[in-house]
Design brief:
With 523 residues, this protein is of the alpha/beta class. It contains 16 helices and 17 strands.
Length: 523
Amino acid sequence: MKRLLVLLFALTISAYVCSCGNKKSQPENSVSETVQAENVTEPEIKEPSKLVNKMTEAELSKVDKHALTLLDEPEESTTEAEPEQTEHTVSVEFHTPSIDELRESIESYRDQMTDEEYEEALDYIEDAVEKGENGGIPYPDYILVDGYIVSHHIPYSDPDYDGGQIEFILTTMSEDGEIESEELSFESFEVYLDWIRKEDAGIGYSDEEIELDILHVQLANEALKTGDYEILPEGTVDVQDRSLYFGYDESGDYRDTWEFDREAVEAIKDSVDEISIYDEELDEEFVVHVTLPPDYDKDKTYPVFFLTDGIWRFGNCPELRKVMENGEAAPVILVSLYYSYNITDPDGSLRYYDFVANRDKLLDFITDNLMPYLCESYNIDCESSALYGHSDGGVFSHNALFKSDLYENQPFGSYIIGSPALWGLYNYNEHFNISSDEVMNDYGYFDRNDKLDKKVFLCGGDQEDPDYADNYNGHDTTLEGLEKLRKRLEAKKADMTYKLYDSHHYQYIPEMLIEYLKENYPV
């Protein structure tokens, strides 16, 4: 899935996705405030943990443990070109916005409307209410051509479009995670198509892909103009099914999108096991990197330092291992998790789905599938192991911590909740069955338990709130949500450490991980 363009009245996930990759510039880190729990003891040497592996036979059959392949050159797709399709299908799922949805949409675009347009919109709503109407005019929510969702604006999706000038508002996310809206205007349909060609070329589409994308737009536009399309019942399109998006290619290879120092990884590659593993519940293929510590002894027991977002965090593993090498931390097994190399997620929507919307399914996978499998392959001390998550991953690690008591398996004794984007939980609750009240109650953990029996490290960057200012929509900022979580844990006398760094949203992560390793796994 190479791109999801967010159009007026269309569902968007990108607006609530945080970018957490490594960048070259790293600010100086310092402690803004630290609260350290007392009586924290050094980890003891323990017997290997026993977890119950709940993988299905199909999942077990797909596990493949092998040497590191990240350094391999991406393979060229060998898929043969399909014969040109002569008959095409167009399907449309309509959505009728409620009065409340119309009001919210109007207010969200108030600064882009003239006073006259704003008043006309309000009059329209008042008229609908007086007539007893429940909502507005149905509009095409999703348009599919040959089974692919068309992610571009389709002129005839606007009932007022007369075939001439095309105008619409395009909302996208910049590389630094900022949400940007732009008013676009084209004098004709052909000029608009030329613009799409340039956009597709900028993304990296091949000439064949560009022309196929153009064809889909043309077919969708003609179908809406003539009414020659199939109507899908509302709720038919599953936006989490990535095979519905143009550009999704299971045979692709996206190793070149991973962020790491090639020379540093080359130096430790013989100490890295790579595991391909599939989860039926998520219908997702993952790649796991297991970085073994210096002088690894298969007969000894080690804690696991589990890092989500392996596309960025595996790149930190050479430096973390070096800390062990230098005798500044005890040996631990570093585990990083990300999607397989044939999956790309440039806009972060897949990451949002799994860390936020599908966070329970991801937790099932890690708790009952992946960690038990790792415990069968390595001698692991789960009680001393730690789970790390940042941003949307921080939403996930918060979920993992406060639902840990609901599982028979206990793969982690410590949790890192970094800059949790809890504000993302308030958006599109109706689409993902997310209860923000449940989240702010820490999933009822303290209704079920008198105390928290896990260790927690809360952290963030003291300069990060402005980074996503456009996304809070009146709810708690990242740091406000973090501070409230801190107070709830303090009130319960949890074994908790809280620290803010002199940093924006993600720049502090590399130093934080090293610091955590040294302090929580002392020699």
